[in-house]
TrEMBL record:
Keywords associated with the record: Signal
UniProt key word Signal: yes
Taxonomy of the source species: Bacteria, Bacillati, Bacillota, Negativicutes, Acetonemataceae
The species this protein was found in: Anaeroselena agilis
Source superkingdom: Bacteria
Position of the signal peptide: 1-22
Name of the featured protein: Uncharacterized protein
Amino acid sequence: MIRKTVALILLVLFILTNSAFATNWIYFKRLEGTRYGPCTEYVDADSVITDDARVVYWTIWVLDETLKYDGTKKILFKKETPLVYPLQYRTLGQYLYNSTDAEIRRHTTPSDYYHKESEEISRVLEFAKPGRDSAVQPDHTVAPAPRWYAFSELEDSALYWNIHSIAAWPKDNPVIVELIVKYVWNKTGLDKRLTYLNAQKKYSTGVASLSYTVANYQFLLTENRGRMLSEADYDAQGQRRTLLESWDWHDIAKGSKEDQARRLALKWLNDEKRFGH
């Protein structure tokens, strides 16, 4: 009887550990223009496996808003990158979950389409370790959600940053740091923001109810330069009203909002070096 009980326990543990395992979700990038709406992508650094011919890894999208038509909140992806030039990846599997982390549906037929995302793959390769591909998937229930921290009061807004959005790479000698910040406007800042948006023909109407702006930045560490990956405006109910994107590197003006954000990123890096967390 005891042997049967032990065997049963071991079987249950085997099933559980082969459906999900401890993960190490790390911020990957912000995505604003997907078919599912704005979301944040994380990579499971512990799942990046290479056999010298290819790299297999898992990422997850955490959507800002649960989809109304089917309840999707998270999407788990399994990806593959052949180690040939140019570096490209394809999706091997896709798993959709609702806001209670229950699976809605899955697609397990590998895609025939390869994405040319050299920057994504370069970052993934930092975590690669030798191993064999496994059917075991990461635990989607522990993927981070945005966590906002107050940083400073500016003349026209309160500046917050998402602690789960900051990352620097390459790992051993960082050159680029990325983070997401939120500007919660006061009356002066809101008037300035509306004036700017009204000058854009795309957003000349329907933006009077804005409350805050979320900006995704990348900064160079060796030069005072940066670029805005995306900038989105939201109303008081958290509904996105605008979306601006720009990938041009440019000099950062002293005292500007980008300068404040870069200082925040540099402080975080210095703290990482000092305290090692």
